[in-house]
């Protein structure tokens, strides 16, 4: 499989690199479209619990089922991206997401829905590293953080739109219609990516490369930068998952906020995440302390926000809503500078594998944390243990990686 190069007209234009903004828009849309349904499950929590008679742990397991396949799938996707490039690998993956969701709209119940989301995860494994690799190849270091922030904003943007649209679809047409909606959106993203994707004008900029032996690639795990990437990624992706699955439930049960209003707060939180990914990534382009320092700031901000939720102030509708918007900005915004840091720390020719490796480690938390948080809420009857666990994970990662960052300097 080969990627389609930039056309002759684009090469001979005054500035052939202007197409990078088109590629950025396409990669961002495909990200948003592919993650539309899975990211919107949190906003459907009340509807799914009622329709399928689920407890909180079972609802968390729904999220985890879509994230299980990428544990291995991200590594495979990274290898395929380095060998064959992004166009068809991402396009086929996003298409798989769409077809699985459309098929899932016929699911008779909970068990079948779990299986459908497992297939969705297989397809989605290609989208995250593939889109990031595309953006990294089109933008140099002076703009890479900003561009990566915009591209990574695609996920919270898609989730924000899903949080606004899918609850309405569920009320009017039933929960199965939400899968069909998500599937059609994902298919649109797949078609757009395959049709619009081009390689950068410089022939060597993103040529598929021969893969190095797996043992040589796994040596990256020993690098100090890789340790920082993985510890920070696991802790902050756990917070991201917790906010996505528990925001509406916390506001509804603890702060006595109506289901519709609580869903709107989740939309606002995701919107803040969009702004955070762009602003924090742009800041990392100009930060003299480097990109990872911005990730450390996000950890500190997240710990502060979670601490407020564990106090009596977390029962106030206004305070709790404000905290979830804060957590949206920093708890989702960290991903922009983090991914830019991953691409720049990767050895030459191994960007796809490095992204796949880092993201597959994140998947451990993405798969395990939602059901664990749900179980904690079910067993304790309180959200405090869940927020405390996320705070502890983030504090531990902050302590270890901040010390490593200081020693590096």
From TrEMBL:
Cellular component, GO annotation: plasma membrane
Show the CDD domains listed in the entry.
Answer: MFS_MT3072_like
MF (Gene Ontology): transmembrane transporter activity
A Pfam family cross-referenced in the UniProt record is MFS_1
Instruction: State the membrane topology.
Output: Multi-pass membrane protein
The record lists the membrane-crossing segments as 21-47, 59-81, 177-196, 229-251, 257-280, 292-311, 323-341, 353-373, 385-404
* Keyword set, alphabetical order: Membrane, Transmembrane, Transmembrane helix
Which intervals of the chain form a coiled coil? none
Q: Which residues form the Major facilitator superfamily (MFS) profile domain?
A: 23-409
Q: What is its main location?
A: membrane
Record localization: Cell membrane
Task: List the PANTHER family.
Answer: BLL3282 PROTEIN
Protein name per UniProt: MFS transporter
Highest classification ranks of the organism:
Bacteria, Bacillati, Actinomycetota, Actinomycetes, Kitasatosporales
